[in-house]
Specification:
- It is a single chain.
- The protein is an alpha/beta fold.
- It folds into 2 domains: 175 residues, Medium-chain alcohol dehydrogenases, catalytic domain (Quinone Oxidoreductase, Chain A, domain 1); 124 residues, 3-Layer(aba) Sandwich (Rossmann fold).
- Helices cover 29% and strands 26% of the residues.
- The protein is built from 10 helices and 15 strands.
- Helix 3 crosses helix 4.
- The protein is globular, with a radius of gyration of 20 Å.
- The termini are close together.
- The relative contact order is 0.15.
- The mean pLDDT is 95.
Length: 324
């Protein structure tokens, strides 16, 4: 099989395309012929060594393809099935991958492979953020950072479906337009405006019920300062770097705030919950309630370019690698 290997941590140049022996599934695993791989910030963190992974390794925790072999597992997974997966450690940047059978999700006929991948890690993340981490209520004002990104655009749409009002942040006029198309009522250019001051102005001085922040260091202070009394900051990523240590007394002084740092794996650890969330998200896409934006397609051999583009924030929507 063809795959992308990381033999040492570092920059995008450590991503090397190689030919390797095809993997063989063990008990409880499935072998999948990969059609589409997702590219995510976690791939960058692992490649750089921020999230330690023993080298050498094949990056990629998300994709879609066709089951080629099954060595026991859930009764709803069979050879020939179209499946998708997310948050499965490593191996995805390849033409074939072995996965735990209980972590793959059947893909409905109405959902194509690219859409399935775009709806897995990012769609499931958006779902748990606004349904579980802070359950958006009708009428809530919500701040969504990086609203033109893969998670941000889906999250904006889901917040609107739950009756919330979205204030978005973006860095360019083109991304601002994408955020508006996703349903944002107001868009703040964070490179030119004081985000917290703008949020206060737009909410009549009150602040927002929740902030969904996947950016981290560069937005953290503004996120805290944008919240209403007893508001919730959901910090789900660190695209700009990790946030500094925080004295919990700050949450008191700023209005009895709540701060949570969730991750997807804890919201899909049980197969029943994984299938329920995936079914909901696929259903929203099928009935037209949720629109997916593909920001870039790259051959597997161009994984380095995909990483560079994602890290530079030159892209919007979902980035995909296409094996074969």
């Amino acid at each position: 099989m063809q795959c992308v290997m990381v033999s040492r941590t570092g920059g995008p140049d450590v991503l090397c395309v190689e030919e390797r022996q095809a993997p063989v599934p063990a008990a409880g695993q499935v072998l999948v012929d990969v059609r589409v791989c997702g590219v995510n910030f976690i791939d960058i963190y692992e490649r750089e060594g921020q999230y330690p992974v023993p080298v050498p390794f094949i990056p990629g925790s998300e994709g879609a393809g066709v089951v080629a072999a099954v060595e026991s597992g859930p009764s709803d997974v069979a050879v020939g099935d179209r499946v998708a997966w997310a948050n499965v450690p490593g191996g995805g940047y390849a033409s074939q991958v072995v996965l735990p059978a209980e972590r793959v999700v059947p893909v409905p006929d109405e959902v194509d492979d690219e859409t399935a991948v775009a709806l897995m890690l990012q769609g499931l993340t958006a779902h748990y953020l606004c349904f579980s981490s802070y359950a958006v209520q009708p009428g809530d004002h919500i701040l969504v950072h990086a609203a033109a990104g893969g998670v941000g655009a889906l999250l904006t749409q889901m917040v609107r479906l739950r009756g919330g009002h979205v204030i978005a942040t973006t860095s360019t006029s083109a991304k601002a337009e994408l955020a508006r198309e996703a349903g944002a009522e107001h868009v703040i250019d964070y490179t030119r405006r004081d985000v917290a001051a703008e949020v206060r102005r737009l909410t009549g001085g009150r602040g927002v019920a929740a902030v969904y922040d996947g950016v981290g260091r560069s937005t953290f202070e503004a996120s805290l300062d944008s919240l209403r009394v007893r508001g919730t900051l959901v910090l789900y990523g660190a695209a700009s770097g990790p946030v500094p240590p925080l004295d919990p007394q700050v949450l008191n002084s700023k209005g009895s705030l709540y701060l949570t740092r969730p991750t997807l794996i804890h919201h899909i650890a049980d197969r029943a919950e994984l299938l329920e969330r995936a079914c909901t998200v696929f259903g929203l896409a099928t009935d037209g309630s949720l629109e997916v934006h593909i920001g870039g397609r790259y051959p597997l051999t161009a994984a380095r370019q995909a990483h560079e583009d994602l890290a530079s924030r030159r892209t919007s929507g979902k980035l995909l690698l296409l094996p074969g």
